[in-house]
Amino acid sequence: MSIVVTGATGALGxxxxxxxxxxxxxxxxxxxxxxAAKAAALAARGVEVRVADYDDPAALAAAFRAGDRVLLxxxxxxxxxxxxxxxxxxxxxxxxxxxxxxxxxxxxxxxxFDLAAEHRATERAVLDSGIxxxxxxxxxxxxxxxxxxxxxxxxxxxxxxxxxxRVASAARADYAAAAAVVLTGEGHLNQVYELSGDTAWSFAExxxxxxxxxxxxxVYEAVPAQQHLAIxxxxxxxxxFAAIMVDVDAAIARGRLAGTSGDLSRLTGRPTTPVxxxxxxxxx
Length: 284
Ligand SMILES: NC(=O)c1ccc[n+]([C@@H]2O[C@H](COP(=O)([O-])OP(=O)(O)OC[C@H]3O[C@@H](n4cnc5c(N)ncnc54)[C@H](OP(=O)(O)O)[C@@H]3O)[C@@H](O)[C@H]2O)c1
Known about the structure:
Layout: E1 3-6, H1 11-23, E2 29-33, H2 40-44, E3 48-51, H3 57-60, E4 69-72, H4 81-95, E5 99-105, H5 117-129, E6 133-138, H6 143-146, H7 149-155, E7 157-160, E8 166-167, H8 172-184, E9 191-195, E10 201-202, H9 203-214, E11 219-222, H10 225-234, H11 239-253, H12 263-268, H13 275-283
Parallel strand pairs: 1-2, 1-4, 2-3, 4-5, 5-6, 6-9, 7-11
Antiparallel strand pairs: 8-10
Helix pairs in contact: 1-8, 4-5, 9-13, 10-11
NADP nicotinamide-adenine-dinucleotide phosphate binds at residues 7, 9-13, 34-35, 38, 53-55, 73-77, 84, 103, 138, 140-141, 144.
């Protein structure tokens, strides 16, 4: 049996595999990727590379073995993910895997925003499959915000339509460490983890921290949803995706991404990375 990570050539997946290789020998780790060339460095370290696209049931049928512990990292093609994830599940079920961990959305069935709909449907499919599961309901990544810092500094403002809402984000690396813990440890079958940062920040606090660290005045520009949509599309974001982002901000305003259950730091055994650290890393 192997510990198998799908989406292993993505940003989160690479970090998960790195965490696994810190914990177990490389010959216990396998990855399922759609492009073997992107996994060449992992293969060189002794990780088994299995090639399968979420859209290719025939290839997926050969991607898992009986007893594997599998992390299904959710895909990034919005609108297509339920079918893709279901195809992975069916292959995992047919192979007889021992564990299926899935990276869903903070709140699970309570996550009532558009982006979470496919995660809710996938969790239902996992439950229906009868495979022993671990739900890793990931909150927001710090990096969703820090990657926008060049534009924020240029505008002198953090623009959002989240009102006074707060975000309990954590670093991708924190979520990766938690995934490695549930894949290598015991006691995580049929468990649900609400993973988020230890503290939730407001956009005004985030802007103040960026100001303090950059030495440039940055304010929180709270805008209504329609204006936010117009700003994002004017900046070149496709309208469908911009609408999803605005809907996320509405969810933040309703408190949907502010939960601080402590599950993430409990699993990893360390405090989550403060957003100030992520800002410092991005500014450096
Ligand atoms: N919690 C958050 O804040 C947050 C933010 C963004 C996304 N997410 C979710 O978390 C997931 C992981 O985040 P991330 O930052 O690692 O995203 P990412 O870098 O976009 O990684 C997505 C991974 O999914 C793989 N993938 C996509 N479609 C596939 C397909 N049809 N067949 C096989 N593999 C496929 C990609 O493969 P390639 O390497 O070949 O491209 C990639 O490895 C995302 O996909 C998304 O569902 C969460």
